[in-house]
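Note to self: the last two entries modelled the partners one at a time, which told us nothing about the interface. This time every component goes in together.
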Amino acid sequence: MVSTLAPVVAGRPGGNDGRTRINGLACRECGDTYEIAPIHVCSRCFGPLEVQYDYDLIRETVSRETIARGPDNMWRYRDFLPLDGEGDIDWRVGWTPLVRATRLGKALGINNLWLKNDAVNPTYSFKDRVVAVASAKAKEFGFDTFACASTGNLASAVAAAGVRLGLITYVFLPQNTERAKFLNAQVYGANVIAIDGTYDDVNRLCSEIADQRGWAFCNINVRPYYSEGSKTLAFEVAEQLGWEVPDHLVIPIASGSLLVKITKGFNELAKVGLTNGKAFKVSGAQAEGCNPVAHAYTRNWDAVKPVKTPNTIAKSLAIGNPADGYYVLKTTRATGGSVAEATDPEIADAMRLLASTEGIFAETAAGVTIAVLKKLAEQGKFGRDERVVAYITGNGLKTLDAVDTLLGETPVVQPNLDAFETYLSTRH
Amino acid sequence: MAVKVRIPTPLRPLAGGASEVTLQPGTVGEVLASLETDFPGFHDRLHDERGEIRRFVNIYVNGEDIRFLEGQSTPVADRDEVSIVPAVAGG
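The predicted structure of the combined assembly is written out below.
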């Protein structure tokens, strides 16, 4: 694709009276500030670091029109992303469909339901967005090796981005991750390593490897940049709705970063005047077999008690110790949303329901989201005409086992017309 | 008689740049107290104003999160390994 990017306000000094779009990093807890660097925690209080932007400058230079002139992928929002240069703008990440889900809405009793289908990114999950930012930032920092701890989807996104940017990749997954997710990373030539432990074990190991080896780990030392990529899921939904803000968002929770950053994305749009700043509710979805945030929500705790051994078919959400769980609780409560959970059978049923009503075959995480959407509807959480947007974050072909037993055997018929007519007659 | 304590990058300046230090066995609380004695500054980094381990700090004994053991009372024996690890985002 030929770039049709609008003029960009560089992250570097220069132009605009020397003002810069990116001001540095700040601790989300204590506010201490840091230079832009591959660091992710505050050295004073261990709080997570966040990229700081000059929103006044963005407001002066970015408009709906400049965005519309950008490429039809996530880089149309690059003024809200923490890169000095360009990302891999020819890699078509983002600008995924926002689908009006009339049939699913009817089945669930939701009048105005929309699905953001992010299962159609290059490696079939929303992780391509965060990795697009993290990999480009790793290049800017001068790393030659790009790595991640993964529950599955991140691994293939990292592996593919590494190929495109010429980075060596290492991905670490829990041994019990679906086979398809290993293959989806290995095929790109990544160094794929299975760890005999849970995702939280993998995370701890990777933290120590990041310290030891000096590699860019997209969810560790380049996390402040990585996580910003999720904001584009807010920007796109707003733009696809004609720059309107939905009334209620339903988002799956693993580490919680996705939910927090989508919320941040909508808030940023209001801050720079691209939307009208209307209030919206944010609700989160977890699997019963790994429900630390839902558990804390229902007990009105403000801290999350980790789940030691997650046990759910929704493996991509199986993070027992979610780093952003605390912020998910704050966000959902502050906006008037909620957090709910779904059992494994409910998850599989919801995957089938989504496929058989909207023609979207999505992975177990989407099953969690749709099953929770159903529960929230039953609980009367959505107003009659509220516009509800649910986020579909990964592709069903990655988790075929989840629906295998549910769907049963495929009938076998001899290759002649009589046999087929006989088969049809037995069905009616 | 010694336990190994792994120090994460953000705290290494407090330990003269060391990635691990060796301390005497005891409970997690006692090991962290002797860390403070040997390398002043650790206590405030790891604990909040109520003396609890900060929300975004994870402490492991031989790879096991102390939240699933006995918290700061978890025993740390000779040759055990204590890891201090910041919270990590998801995947």
